């Protein structure tokens, strides 16, 4: 596949991930990391998502910034940032085959969880569990760019305002992305080619987020979530049992 084809498909994938998140409220990293390794080597897919992810976090935080409270979820934020280097250096030292297997398993676990337990009552976690859940989120974020599920499970088990939860998640994901960006720069993973692709994806990504918000009124959210996570489950199985 030539560079132009890879560029177009990568930008389209990032836009699709933004659209899905704007409609379902979750899943940008999951969708992007499920599809991008089909186009790029794992570590390039890992790198190209970082700037678009920061854009998504910034857009969502700005929309909910007035409701953000620093003290609520501070342990989650700190724990996540502390654990990112652990996951990152684990990723750097793992063979590609093991990385793809781990990615497939994580995608399957997260997709199956959404498909089977989305309508059940969420597990109630104490507020002091923010630290360990943050550590789990940061480690997965550092290793696979997919630290969302532990953080989401924790915040939605708290009796906090919905708008604060959304704002907090953007701070957690954005801060862990900034830590990853610094680590990636130090490891030489930020190349001119990947940076160019990331920057080109920003406008289509913003357009997709806007479109998702506009068409939300015509889409059955639960039906779309089912289709998306069923598709992701199939992609995860492909990575696990790849030829």
Can you lay out the helices and strands and say which pair or pack?
Blueprint: H1 3-24, H2 28-35, H3 42-48, H4 50-64, H5 74-92, H6 96-117, H7 130-144, H8 148-155, H9 162-186, H10 192-215, H11 221-240
Helix pairs in contact: 1-2, 1-10, 2-11, 4-9, 4-10, 5-7, 5-9, 6-11, 7-8, 8-9
> How many strand elements?
0
Rounded mean pLDDT is: 83
| Number of contiguous helices | 11
Q: Helix share of residues?
A: over 70%
Major pleated sheet: none
Approximate strand percentage:
under 5%
The secondary-structure class comes to mainly alpha
Order of helices and strands: HHHHHHHHHHH
Distance between the termini: 19 Å
Integer-rounded radius of gyration? 17 Å
Q: Low-confidence parts lasting 5 or more residues at pLDDT below 50? A: none
Shape: globular
Describe the structure.
The structure is a single chain. The chain is an all-alpha fold and 243 residues long. Helices cover 76% and strands 0% of the residues. It contains 11 helices and no strands. The protein has helices at residues 3-24, 28-35, 42-48, 50-64, 74-92, 96-117, 130-144, 148-155, 162-186, 192-215, 221-240. The radius of gyration is 17 Å and the shape is globular. The two termini are 19 Å apart.
Kindly list the characteristics that best describe this protein.
243 residues; mainly alpha; 11 helices; 0% strand
Précis, in short:
The protein has 243 residues and is mostly helical.
């Amino acid at each position: 596949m030539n560079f132009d084809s890879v560029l177009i498909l990568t930008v389209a994938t990032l836009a699709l991930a933004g659209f899905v998140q704007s409609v379902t409220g979750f899943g940008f990293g999951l969708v992007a990391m499920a599809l991008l390794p089909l186009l790029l080597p794992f570590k390039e897919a890992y790198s190209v998502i970082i700037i678009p992810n920061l854009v998504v976090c910034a857009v969502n935080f700005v929309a909910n910034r007035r409701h953000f409270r620093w003290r609520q979820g501070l342990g989650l934020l700190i724990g996540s940032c502390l654990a990112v280097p652990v996951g990152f250096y684990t990723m750097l030292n793992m063979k590609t085959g093991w990385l793809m297997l781990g990615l497939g398993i994580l995608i399957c676990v997260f997709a199956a969880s959404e498909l089977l337990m989305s309508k059940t009552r969420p597990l109630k976690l104490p507020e002091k569990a923010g630290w360990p859940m943050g550590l789990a989120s940061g480690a997965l974020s550092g290793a696979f760019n997919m630290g969302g599920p532990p953080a989401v499970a924790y915040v939605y088990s708290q009796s906090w305002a919905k708008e604060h939860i959304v704002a907090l998640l953007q701070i957690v994901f954005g801060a862990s992305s900034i830590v990853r960006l610094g680590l990636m720069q130090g490891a030489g993973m930020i190349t001119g080619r990947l940076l160019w692709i990331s920057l080109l994806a920003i406008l289509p990504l913003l357009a997709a987020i806007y479109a998702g918000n506009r068409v939300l009124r015509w889409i059955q959210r639960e039906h779309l979530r089912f289709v998306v996570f069923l598709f992701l489950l199939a992609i995860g199985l492909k990575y696990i049992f790849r030829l």
